[in-house]
Design brief:
The protein is of the alpha+beta class. It folds into 3 domains: 107 residues, Butyryl-Coa Dehydrogenase, subunit A, domain 1 (Orthogonal Bundle); 122 residues, Beta Barrel (Butyryl-CoA Dehydrogenase, subunit A, domain 2), CATH 2.40.110; 145 residues, Butyryl-CoA Dehydrogenase, subunit A, domain 3. It contains 13 helices and 9 strands.
């Protein structure tokens, strides 16, 4: 086990600079264009693949080769400092990879995670499909069904997924579906839908408030048949889990009873999502700080006014506080079990900070902050999703409340 430390090693410092340079030289100059186009930025992802940033090797080393757990948050903060929409286009496949790693066997992980990325010459994408039109925060109420065809050793999937990053354009879709709806969250399983599988199609593509370079769409599953080997974790493990869940149906419910496939993925990725939010907040803070030093009013830089200076001081403090929570949660996720929902704490705080800091940045720029000629309005639009996706602000509070109380708070 690695001792908890905020000191970055030489490799981490080099990765931090490497990703920052890419964000500064490649991502930022393209950010406004792809935000306006609202299209997946294939050329930028291709550039990321060429240098090895978009790759299975980088994700494997960052997630499993780093005992401190800090390498991935470092990289994400720097990339999302460049632009959140493009950053999510580059790292969106990571959620599918995490879903496979969190629920699959080692053999399934080695087979399918590389296929979420492809090669620099032939890029592939992954998508993690959980949310539905009527089941966002309440993942225990999924309507997408998976029925086992024992004669063919195949699973048949039917349903519609909503708000899916890379949905429909991905090569590998990881789908969470209900196997036994009566068991709710404990009756669910995750499935790989291989590239080119018949019956999977893209539904509507969403026109979003922010992160507009990231592709977000519905995924429609119409009698999608996948081999039995595509059940993550295997059928024996699923049957054992379902049997235990049925036995426990009439027993008192506790906050820690049962683990949903979607939740096991989100628990692992929440510090990473928090790091993305911090990158956006830092970009807005740095821009506002430079503006306040350059902009003059009443004969002096506006930072000389306490109202501006104190706001910037609070912005810097909140960003550092959020980063410390993210780093602690990332270390705990890599080295130990969460004790009191530290992953949710880090995501809750980082999301709130990103929204508040970017809003303050607009205020410091005044009218200029409200127009698209300046990037802070885009930072603010991008930040808002961090109060919503991968568990809303209120869901994070619920998870934390259950953890600290030991009660099934509803």
């Amino acid at each position: 086990m690695s001792d908890f430390s905020l000191a970055l090693n030489e490799d981490q410092l080099q990765i931090q600079k490497w990703v920052h340079d890419f964000a500064e030289d490649v991502v930022r100059p393209a950010a406004e264009e792809w935000d306006e186009r609202e299209e997946f930025p294939w050329p930028i992802v291709e550039e990321a693949a060429k240098i090895g940033l978009y790759s299975f090797d980088f994700m494997a080393n960052a997630m499993m080769g780093d005992a401190s757990g800090l390498t991935l948050p470092l990289a994400l903060e720097e990339l999302f400092w460049g632009d959140a929409g493009i950053g999510l286009a580059i790292f969106g496949s990571g959620l599918a990879a995490a879903g496979i790693a969190g629920n699959g066997t080692p053999e399934q992980m080695m087979e399918w995670v590389p296929q979420c990325y492809g090669t620099p010459d032939k890029i592939a994408l992954g998508a993690f499909c959980v949310s539905e039109p009527d089941a966002g925060s309440d993942v225990s109420s999924l309507r997408t069904r998976a029925v086992y065809d024992e004669a063919k050793d195949e699973w048949v999937l039917n349903g519609t997924k909503a708000w899916i990053t890379n949905g429909g354009i991905a090569d590998v879709h990881v789908v969470v579906a209900a196997v036994d709806p009566e068991l709710k969250g404990r009756g669910q399983a995750s499935f790989i839908v291989p590239p080119g599988t018949a019956g999977l199609s893209q539904g509507q593509k969403y026109k979003k408030h922010g992160i507009r370079a990231s592709h977000t769409a519905e995924v429609v599953l119409d009698d999608v048949r996948v081999p039995g080997s595509c059940l993550l974790g295997g059928k024996d493990k699923l049957d054992e889990k379902l049997a235990k869940a049925r036995e426990a149906m009439n027993k008192p419910k506790h906050a820690t009873s049962g683990k949903q496939p979607a939740m096991s993925t989100f628990e692992a990725t929440r510090p990473a999502v928090g790091a993305q939010a911090i990158g956006i907040a830092r970009a807005a803070y740095e821009y506002a700080l430079q503006y306040a030093q350059d902009r003059k009013a009443f004969g002096k830089p506006i930072i000389m006014n306490q109202a501006i200076a104190f706001t910037l001081a609070d912005m810097a403090t909140e960003i550092d506080a959020a980063r410390l929570l993210v780093w602690r949660a990332a270390w705990m996720a890599r080295n130990a079990e969460y004790r009191n929902a530290e992953g949710s704490m880090s995501k809750l705080k980082a999301g709130r900070v990103a929204v508040w800091v970017t809003e303050r940045a607009i205020q410091i720029l005044g009218g200029y902050g409200y127009v698209r000629e300046y990037p802070v309005e885009r930072f603010h639009r991008d930040a808002k999703i961090y109060d919503i996706f991968e568990g809303t602000e209120q869901i994070q509070q619920l998870v934390i409340a259950r953890a600290i109380s030991g009660l099934r708070i509803e």
